Amino acid sequence: MKDKKGMEVFHWILIMIVGAVILLFGVIFAGKSGGVEQQKQNVLVVEYLEMFFNPFTSVGAIADSFGKKVSLPYEIDAELRCEGGKEFLFVGSGGKISSEKIENFVYTPSKIKARELFVLTKSFEIPFRVTDLIFTFDSGQKFCVIYDEQDAGQADFVDQLKGDIEGSLVDAQGNFAYCQDIGCCRVAGSTRIISLNAQKGDVNLVPQGADGEGFSFGEVTWAAQGAQGSGQGAASAGRKSVFVSSALAEAAIFSDYPLYSCNLRRLMSKTGSVSDIYSEKANYLGAIAQPQVCNYNALRGDLQQIKTLAGSVGSAQSLSSARALNGAAQEFETKNMELPCIQIY
Amino acid sequence: MHTNILRNQIRKSKKGQVKMIETILVLLALVFFFGIIIIFYSRFQLFEVQRLAQEVDEERASSLLGKISGMPELKCSVSFGSASGTDCIDSYKLLALSKQQAKFEEEFEGLSEVRVERVYPPPSGAGIGQACEFGNDYPENCAYWQLYTRARGAGQGAGSRTSLDSFVTLCTQRSSVLYECEIGRIVVGVPDRGATGAGGGA
Hints:
- The structure holds two protein chains of two kinds.
- In chain A, strand 2 and strand 3 form a beta hairpin.
- Chain A has a domain at about 270-335.
- Chain A has a six-stranded mixed β-sheet, with helices on both faces.
- Chain A has seven helices and twelve strands.
- Chain A is α/β, with parallel strands linked by helices.
- Chain A starts with a helix and ends in an 8-residue tail after the last helix.
- By secondary structure, chain B is an alpha+beta fold.
- Chain B has one domain (about 45-195).
- Helices cover about 40% and strands about 20% of the residues of chain B.
- Chain B has three helices and five strands.
- Chain B has a five-stranded mixed β-sheet with strand order 1-4-5-2-3.
- The N and C termini of chain B lie far apart (about 80 Å).
- Classes of the chains: A alpha/beta, B alpha+beta.
- At the A-B interface, helix 1, strand 3, strand 6 and helix 5 of A face helix 1 and helix 2 of B.
């Protein structure tokens, strides 16, 4: 009798233990597979975005700028970070983050939390095409550009920006306001204020080119966090860098300091590599040309100088180095155009 | 009398032992059954992830294939006039890039190789099967330009699982106003993940 009772108790205990183990196993398994599914989705979105950026790197060869609105399968938390001279795209949240190194030069104002993104590309030339810069921002971001209408350089730059947006990214027209003062930007409900006339916006662009050179080179500063439109990361506060070409000035509009600064180093390194390609090409052209007519050696020297100066811009990010690079690029452009034989680019 | 009671107790105790062994065996069978399910499921998941990774690699390679002909390091520049707006590759830049492979390795990361071949007119004479080098009759003296070959570490092998290709225009400047074009082909190799366990990936 006692044995029978003992067996029953034993059975019940066993059933409870086994049931608990199976339940625990089911809960863990469901949790894990849900996490894996989320991670898989993140990986696919990262890969999709990375592949999506690739064709944008080639459009500069056929058009000055190009834009597209991208709709994603779900709202993403994305961030671009440049670390150790490499740019990474992070997608995901709550510990389920996927990342991918991206080869393109992508600029974004801050962390992106959106289901729709705007992507705009712009060719970077110095004076030969080096690459295409890609600007990305979420569809909810509002920009305001403060400029002085009477200043020809500023007006030209704004016209160019307007042209890029209106020509390539019609859907994003409502995301941009162009004002004469900061009050107008507040009325427009802007989250990111760009100042071209030292009105202390979130991003301040100060062109330094001579008359007629406009935004060929200059200085860019990022204001302290929350100063104006509050579309600023803390890491950007009060930091300073330079731009060479209006394409880079536009890149500064769409970027925080850490990303911009790191990408500038990458970009200048790539400028050096492309200079080497042209230098090698000049070497071949020199071998088949008549030396008394075409002196490719002088141009190779200029290309070497562009490479060196680009390295200085990348490392020092000083106005003097930007001025020197801009000057060398202009000189090379003139010499190349005046060549009586095959031009290098 | 005593013997009978003892016999009954022994019989009951044996019955209990048999029941206990039965229960343990059923439990063992259950554990075994669940174990087999888990193994099959994880195998299936692993296979799915590998298939997805290979698919992503191929899509990336396809995307890179489109990007290569537009790379400033290869693309015909404005000096080619109207040809610069087309899918045109400058043969001098091609040669320059093939000589400076190390600097551009990052551009081709995730691929096992990148090669540009002359297709039409086909290479002839001594040029057949020859890698391109600069010379008087360049680029007629060769068949292909090797732009990238992935370095293989110890234990790695197999190379490309699949290759993707795309036709391009290969142009060579002959003078400031004259350039000659021919048909070429860009070939990119997608690494075999199973064999190398390498690649980009997240």
